[in-house]
Design a protein that fits this description.
Elements (H helix, E strand, L loop, with lengths): L1 H20 L1 E4 L3 E7 L2 E6 L2 E4 L5 E7 L3 E11 L5 E12 L2 H6 L4 H18 L3 H6 L1 H15 L5 E12 L2 H83 L3 H17 L13 H20 L8
Antiparallel strand pairs: 1-4, 2-3, 2-5, 6-7, 7-8
């Protein structure tokens, strides 16, 4: 009885060990390929998975995005310049079955394919284009690798050119060319600055001259206005004086006689025998009337007794 119990315990222990050997844990970023006696059976997802011990095996495949470094290689450009190029390839497994059974060494396969494709792409470009067209090279290389690796159950998500290094002498020539180009740009910018400064200075001088001329014209206009005002005032004063004299002549008071006498004195000085012309006032009749009155006055004085004229 005791032997039977021991045997059952041994069998139970063996069964427990066998069952424990059949337990597999698959991580969230993994897929499990289950084979039974060398034949593919199924693909197990993440979590707890049971297999038959000694009859089934499981191969875990990492489905996270991976990165592979493409070693540097010498590539001849279209213009026969040898450059050293290396790149980085990012890929992820989309089909674990194809990735496990369609390619023996994926790393070697993707590396050699990237080197060959990169050599072909750089060989179709000049050195200047190869140095300035990295984005174009990355895009084309990714498309080539993605199409070629589709049957391997992977997807190339990104390709980056790390370095395109020309020979030392070519690099020195490029540095000299770049320096000469920068010097040329500096000279052009300096010349443009001087030209702009002269233009601005000339425009400023022109504006100053215009403003100065406008100021002088305004001053002349104001002086002319003042002179015109002066002439108008003088003319108005003289006109007022003439009107006053003219009115006094035509009034019949003694003042008119005095004014007439002044006119006669003036005519006497004008007609002293030296002048060739006689000037008479415009209102001759009025003046003559005044002269007639004065003559009558002198005649009465002459007729009076005791006067020198009667004598």
């Amino acid at each position: 009885m005791t032997g039977l119990i021991v045997a059952l315990a041994v069998v139970a222990g063996v069964l427990f060990i066998v069952a424990f050997m059949g337990i597999r844990i698959i991580r969230p970023y993994q897929k499990g390929l289950v084979e039974r006696l060398g034949k593919y059976q199924r693909t197990a997802d993440s979590g707890l998975t049971f297999i038959i011990p000694f009859f089934e095996i499981i191969t875990k495949v990492d489905i996270r995005e991976q990165v592979e470094d493409v070693p540097p290689q010498a590539v001849i450009c279209k213009d026969n310049v040898v450059v050293s190029v290396d790149a980085v390839v990012y890929y992820e497994v989309t089909d674990p079955y194809k990735f496990a059974y369609n390619v023996a060494d994926y790393y070697t396969a993707i590396t050699k394919l990237a080197q060959t494709s990169l050599r072909n792409l750089i060989g179709d470009l000049d050195l200047d284009d190869a140095l300035t067209s990295r984005e174009l090279i990355n895009t084309k290389l990714r498309e080539i690798l993605d199409d070629a690796t589709d049957k391997w159950g992977t997807r190339v998500s990104r390709v980056e050119i790390q370095r395109i290094e020309p020979p030392k002498d070519v690099t020195e020539a490029m540095h000299r060319q770049m320096k000469a180009e920068r010097d040329r740009r500096a000279i052009i910018l300096e010349s443009e600055g001087e030209k702009q400064a002269k233009i601005l200075r000339a425009e400023g001088d022109r504006e100053a001259e215009i403003q100065r001329a406008v100021g002088q014209a305004e001053a002349i206009r104001k002086v002319a206005d003042a002179h015109r005002y002066e002439l108008i005032e003088v003319a108005e004063g003289e006109a007022g004086a003439i009107k006053t004299v003219f009115g006094a002549i035509h009034e019949g008071d003694p003042t008119n006689d005095l004014i007439a006498i002044r006119y006669l004195d003036t005519l006497a000085r004008v007609a002293d025998g030296k002048a060739s012309k006689i000037f008479l006032p415009m209102e001759v009749s009025g003046i003559l009337g005044s002269i007639g009155g004065i003559a009558e006055l002198f005649g009465k004085e002459a007729e009076a007794p005791g006067s020198e004229a009667a004598t």
